[in-house]
Design a protein that fits this description.
Blueprint: H1 2-24, E1 34-42, E2 53-63, E3 70-72, E4 79-82, E5 86-90, E6 98-101, E7 106-108, E8 114-116, E9 121-122, E10 135-136, E11 139-146, E12 151-156, E13 162-166, E14 169-172, E15 179-182, E16 185-187, E17 194-198, E18 207-210, E19 212-214, H2 220-251
Antiparallel strand pairs: 1-2, 3-19, 4-18, 5-6, 5-9, 5-14, 6-16, 7-8, 10-11, 11-12, 12-13, 14-17, 15-16
Helix pairs in contact: 1-2
Length: 253
């Protein structure tokens, strides 16, 4: 009995950690909430016909990739995807180390590369880094944004904005199987089943909205209710340990 109760304590402690992490990241751009998944298990019975459950164990942490609301920032380098696609980014030191993100809080570095806040390069449909010249024909860059089709629009001097490179958007058939890297980045796995790299707006990827960011897909009310329920379950398991100790004490007197 004591071993079964210990699994309950471990399971509920793990769930409290997962829910607490969701709450902590409720304000993180494009954060994807996780849910603890558990499974029951059975040990071999000493007597035939007895199938006594042996508790619960953590199976996995399932990440919800449901798109969240988009908030307007009016910053041209802030990008959001109005659909299910993901931006493709690469390590600037090792270009073939590619990962994926919904976090479109981007910026131009000193060389004109479009990067994430942690310096990852944003890639085009042809998997080349997006780079913008700060000066063209002696005229300074006066306007920069990305249109809904993913084309980088730039203007120099008083001229009108013209399209340049087109962002690539990745689409996964099973995004829940992506491996988390932190900071809103994910690594592709065989289970995630990459459908392909598409132009924004095609194959269910969604259009790109410049001047917007995706918020976290965390509902604080639901998370707090889950936290309270889990704490109550943990408390019940603790009381069960005390009850087990009392039973043993009475039997040994």
């Amino acid at each position: 009995m004591l071993n079964i109760i210990k699994t309950a304590l471990h399971a509920n402690s793990h769930k409290v950690s997962v829910v607490s992490n969701n709450i902590a990241n409720a304000g993180t751009t494009a954060f994807k909430r996780s849910e603890a998944i558990f499974e029951d298990f059975y040990l071999k019975a000493e007597r035939k016909g007895l199938e006594l459950g042996s508790g619960a164990k953590v199976q996995s942490n399932r990440v919800s990739h449901n798109p969240a609301q988009l908030k307007k920032t009016s910053v041209s380098s802030d990008l959001a995807i109005n659909g299910h696609g993901m931006f493709i980014i690469a390590n600037p030191e090792v270009r073939d180390q590619v990962s994926f993100t919904r976090n479109g809080s981007l910026q131009l570095d000193e060389k004109g590369f479009l990067t994430t806040n942690d310096g990852q390069l944003v890639l085009t449909k042809t998997l080349d880094p997006v780079q913008i010249a700060y000066e063209k024909n002696g005229l300074p860059l006066s306007e920069f944004n990305v249109n809904p089709d993913g084309f980088v629009m730039t203007a120099y001097g008083v001229a009108s904005a013209e399209p340049g490179e087109q962002l690539g958007i990745a689409y996964f058939n099973n995004p829940e199987a992506l491996s988390q890297l932190g900071n809103g980045r994910f690594l592709a796995t065989d289970g995630a089943d990459l459908s392909g790299v598409y132009a924004p707006g095609s194959n269910g990827t969604g259009n790109v909205l410049s001047g917007h960011l995706e918020v976290a897909n965390v509902n604080l009310v639901n998370e707090l209710v889950s936290l309270i329920n889990t704490q109550q379950a943990f408390s019940a398991a603790s009381k069960a340990i005390q009850a087990d100790n009392d039973m043993v004490s009475r039997l040994t007197k």
